[in-house]
Amino acid sequence: MCEPNVDEPLNPQAAHTIEHIGATLLRNGHYKEHIIYFGPMGCMTGFYLITRDLDFETVKNLVKEIFEAIASWNQDIPGAKKEECGNYTYMDLEKAKQSASFFINSSWEHSYHYL
Ligand SMILES: [Zn+2]
């Protein structure tokens, strides 16, 4: 999502928020049968997405679609109730939206190098 050691890394609360929204969209979306894992990298520069039986072009389009949805998210954060998440107040939707927007608008072309 950002250039390693150049751009500011993700805020961890924003990454947690992106994880919740992204995982929910991926697990319930058109390609749900192909999604194995989505979660943040420890270095806070991006996410791992593990899929099966999807071509690269499909995955790239899916990632863009998911992050566009996150950038304009205006609903409750999914799975963010006390009974659903072990650190449910550790969220920052505004920073998540800013980071998703940065990824799509500023670093998307560059990020192809890391996909
Ligand atoms: Zn959580």
Automatic annotation (TrEMBL):
What EC number is given for this enzyme?
4.4.1.21
Top-level taxon of the source organism: Bacteria
Matches recorded under Pfam families: LuxS
Q: Which UniProt keywords apply?
A: Autoinducer synthesis, Iron, Lyase, Metal-binding, Quorum sensing
Swiss-Prot/TrEMBL catalytic activity: S-(5-deoxy-D-ribos-5-yl)-L-homocysteine = (S)-4,5-dihydroxypentane-2,3-dione + L-homocysteine
Classification via SUPFAM superfamilies:
LuxS/MPP-like metallohydrolase (SSF63411)
Q: Which residues form a coiled coil?
A: none
Annotated GO molecular function terms are: lyase activity
Subunit structure, as described in the record: Homodimer.
This molecule's function is given as: Involved in the synthesis of autoinducer 2 (AI-2) which is secreted by bacteria and is used to communicate both the cell density and the metabolic potential of the environment. The regulation of gene expression in response to changes in cell density is called quorum sensing. Catalyzes the transformation of S-ribosylhomocysteine (RHC) to homocysteine (HC) and 4,5-dihydroxy-2,3-pentadione (DPD).
Q: Which family does it belong to?
A: Belongs to the LuxS family.
Q: Which PANTHER family match?
A: S-RIBOSYLHOMOCYSTEINE LYASE
Protein name per the record: S-ribosylhomocysteine lyase
The organism is Allocoprobacillus halotolerans
